[in-house]
Design brief:
about 425 residues, mainly alpha
Length: about 425
Amino acid sequence: MSKSRFLRNVSFLVMATVASRLIGIVTLPYKARLYVDIDYAHLAIFLVAATLITLLSTARFELIIPTIKQERDAMQMTYMIMLLSLVVCAIFSIVFYGIGSVGFGYELLTTELLGVPFIIALFAFCVLRAWTYTITYFFNHQERFRIIARSRLADALVATALGIGFGLLGTSEGLILALLLAAAIQFLFLVLPWLLHPAHQFPHVGSMIELAKTHIKQPLYNLPQAFFGQVQQNIFVGVIESIYGQSVLGFHAFTYNLVRMPSSFVGGALAEVSLKRAAKLLETDPAALVHYAKSFIKFVLVLLIIPVGILMFFGEPIFAFVFGEQWAEAGRYAQIYAPMIILLMMSTPLRVLPVVTGHQRGLMWRNMLMQVITYGTFAVLALSSLGFELALTTKVILESIGIVLIIWWIIKVCREIARASTSRLE
């Protein structure tokens, strides 16, 4: 694919991803008035469990797909991940049901969703998400970004429409039900083109095992840090729910979802396409990696510095005006989280560079250390009966420092690779 065509397709994917998030953002002020803080608390509990299970189910093998050179091998890797995720999702859904039976803030998972055991809904959602992520990375390998873009738009439209519809009907757990049905629609948008792809072939056990052995190094470094991070998130939610109550958890979840939108979706889209582009730069022009990293930083600063500054000083009145007076407390949490929006948006695309350059181990240990310090400090402060906002502010400050240090380290690694490349040429 030519560079100009590649850039056009990347731009289309980013614009479609932004549009899909804007659909949710634009309708959120109306949707927020249809639900209460407890609804968002239940959504947070469901999502942290689902995210952890989905992460374990793919073992982060999907990150390898864009770097595989042969289409046949990329297809076999896709099938291997899908079969693995089916088994793992079943096992850990049962594990979370057992945790919910004991307590620990996950009692919701032992109840029912419209007459169906909640744990079945959790299993279905995790499988759909795992398969969607995997096929998305396959199409990333093919540089067929328009298929990915259309699937995300469909997911956003369905989730928003159903979320509003269930809210108007007063449906129990309408936010979760909307997400589940939207995940099914997005999967259909991806699976049909995938099955009809010219390179499609049915799984071969021997090929899948060989591929897993060949590429096991990356998951060994990537999975532990991602797993550790999600475990911390589960503990974080459990601590808030247990010590500060579901109301605080609901307000925090509402804010946290908004704060992470830029990094999760725009930054995530950039990270997906950056993975393959960075791999090509490493082969053809390693010295360009430093400029590549700095360009992301400059782009984010120009894009977000003014809106984030406004949010930092006027978050509470903005939330009260836009979402309703009942969400003013969430606005105070947004003021605390504001600086994190810029840092998360910067770091998300940059984190693929250590993966490409073979520095996953360094990234893993730095991430894990940052998570231990930030979440451990929050837990200690919460258990010491410190107010939630003070505990959250301390956590955000420590986490911000950690992200800045990780970004600095990534740029340092890129500089070292550039110098080594220049020395070899001389």
